[in-house]
Amino acid sequence: MVMDLEVRNLRKTFNLSRKQRRIEHTDEKRRVAVRGLSFEAKRGEIYGLLGPNGAGKTTTLRCISTLIKPDEGDVFVDGKSVLKDSMGVRKNIAFLTNELKLDDFFTPNYLYDYFSRLHGVDEKTAEKRKKELFKRFGVDKFAEVKVADLSSGMKQKTSIAISLVHDPDFIIFDEPTNGLDVLTAKTVVDYLLELKESGKAIIVSTHILSVVEKLCDKVGIIIDGELKVSGTLQEVKAKDAKQDLENVFFSLVEESGGADRA
After folding, report:
1. What is the C-alpha separation between 213 and 249, in angstroms, rounded?
2. Residues 177-230: pLDDT tens digits?
3. Domain spans in the chain, listed from the N-terminal domain onward
4. What 3-state DSSP class applies to 82?
5. Strand ranges for the chain from DSSP E
6. Residue 140 forms beta bridges with which residues?
7. Which helix (H) or strand (E) holds 21?
8. Fewer CB atoms inside 10 A, N or C side of the chain?
9. What is the rounded distance in angstroms from the CA atom of residue 222 to the CA atom of residue 49?
């Protein structure tokens, strides 16, 4: 039976340091980042988490990716629980983020080979896949250049290739085009659409409406850690008389008192 990715009643809180409380002018010692989130991402679809900065998108993705544990709820990836079988989950997911920092002293070739071995990919398969990915993203011309000497766009494309060494079925991408030049952003968007067509389940978090319109089959709008609305892109847009995603988004933000963050 084909299993998808399901988030069930996810909740996560963080302790605020004294410095954070002073910067934010607050006396609260704990912050609720995610409040009972539930949604599902299916194979062959892209699910977009849309929300302003600080809404809880990245926290949600980190819980899904087993980087942090939720306080309540669970996530099931291909039937495996992130709480009970985190290693099983990691074998079949890729977590892509522009915050991923590659070691400056190594080359794309070395890093790709290292992570291939780490994931247990056999040498022949790894070499074939590296050739395809490096050519697809133009990394092949810079394969022996140290990461420190690569452009920011090439670092991003190298990170994508390395994250996909094990050909996972579930792709999780935090802010896919943030900080990228137009050409690199288009390369990333086009490749995500190709992965979708190949049957991958993809979750993308963003605060950029045009990315959602371009990429996503389904969308969830998250504000202050709560999923305010979720459904197909057409269903969510239908909540506005003009069928306008921007109007739906800003209406929900204003209702939550967070228009200054959108």
Report:
1. 12
2. 777 788 888 888 899 999 999 999 999 998 889 889 989 999 999 999 999 999
3. 1-92+201-262
4. coil
5. 5-15, 30-41, 45-50, 72-77, 80-81, 93-97, 170-174, 201-206, 218-223, 226-232
6. none
7. helix 18-24
8. N
9. 7
